[in-house]
Amino acid sequence: MEFFETVNKRISCRKFKDQEIPKDILMKILDAGNKAPSAMNQQPWEFIIVKDKKLKHKIREIYEEARDKKGFYQQDTSFVEKGTQIFVVSDKTKHRHIISASLAIENILLAATDLGLGSIVMTALISFEEHVKEIRGLLKVPDKFDIIALVVVGYKDEESVPKKKRKLKGMIHYDKF
Question: What pTM was computed for the model?
Fold first, then answer.
């Protein structure tokens, strides 16, 4: 796939087949994440792949609880369990670690799209400290790491509809805001 085609095709997918991604494809996606630029080349990210079905279900429950607390619209959340869960965590002792880990996440999303897979980046489940603590405990994340996001990648069960984006013209400023 050509780069701009990949960028234009990348949209959040919330309907996955109940099928794990083969390890070689997953490693290709994670390698793309690992090739992201990072502040001072510190590469603060780590990737936690959740495969255990009970653990995936528990993470879905945490996600649902967080969505309810946030007052988000109701939706079928089965996609959280059906795809491959990748938690991106970042060493908070590293310079500008959040933006660096976010760049790794974008590479993961684009790589998944390029390979014909669906993906979604999720942060609602880390919106509340009690959920962060619970996930940190479940995944045994050391204190020096922040949980940046959950990325779910999988085989699309249906094509997602792109959401409307802001017009570029209205957000470009020259020389001053």
Answer: 0.93
